Fold this sequence. Notes:
It contains 13 helices and ten strands. With about 350 residues, the chain is of the alpha+beta class. The chain has three domains: about 5-80, Winged helix-like DNA-binding domain superfamily/Winged helix DNA-binding domain (Arc Repressor Mutant, subunit A, Orthogonal Bundle); about 85-130 and about 230-344, GAF domain (Beta-Lactamase), CATH 3.30.450.40; about 135-230, Enolase-like, domain 1 (2-Layer Sandwich). The longest helix is centred in the last third of the chain and has 21 residues, at about 325-344.
Amino acid sequence: MSKLNERQKNILFAIIQSHIDLNAPIGSVMIARRHAIQLSPATIRNTMASLEKLGYIIQPHTSAGRVPTDKGYSLYVSTILKEHPKTIGTSLYQTLSAKLNVESADSSILLKEAAKTLSFMSQYLAIATPPKMEEVTLCNIKFIKYRKQKVLTVLISGDGTVKNRIIELDTVYTQSELDRAAEYMNNRFCGETIDDVKKIIANELHREKIICNQLVTRLIAICTDIFISDLDILSLNSLSGASNLPDFATAVQIKEILSAIEDKNFILKLLDQVSPSKGVKVVVGMQDFLPAMRELSLVIASYKSSLNACGAIGVIGPTRMNYKEMISMVDYTAQTLSNILSDH
């Protein structure tokens, strides 16, 4: 990315802020009027011409003002992340705090409430992912005979998440046999992460130390599959949030975007964007995720559960969103969510 001098950067950021506020091409006279830049319109025009050559702004049509490109927005966002403190207004702080402090032992309820609140406050689409299942610890496993070969499997993780599923086994087992299998698994794997359980099983099978019990082996595989494959994606939006997505959106584009959000591979791509050590991440222009998202941006941050398993929460909105506000809002929501889950 080309290095800009202070004048170029100030004018670029003035164009971006005006474009965010007005959603219209921005001219030199408007920059001189709206911002405390002690330069003549002619000097501003010359600087805008150099910014256009460098690819930071474009002129939509002849005689129009300029609008920022993704390259311009990216520089603007990186500067905000480096130089500006993440603060939110008092009223926003109070609203978020009140709505996020939900009394519940179930982390999925807290996550849903956080996403709903973020969508309501931002007026954009909010998206949240649960902690990575590989990092979640097992707390308790129970098998309940249902009918014939069908068994209700109940899995409780260390962070309070409960998953249950009716499974069908190859053979009919008594409740006593199912209880013995659950007792073995609880004794052997309680407190271990799903990832560690897989490693233990692989190691013991290699050394032929695991109990040679067909039922136990089958149930372990099923339980691991339930945690790993059951990626409960929580993408929530209010009606106004959906209508405020992209300024240009057609019904077809909205359908493509919402379909992508339901795709687990799309969510895994989102998770790849965040890291517990790097704070808020902003992706300007999401065409790499989906062509229909080329005029959308993602602001996302990681949060941690009580057991340090990492999930993500954020918003998807138009490229000309108010990044200062969205970055602070997403950051605060993620930190508050981490604090609540840690307390639980």
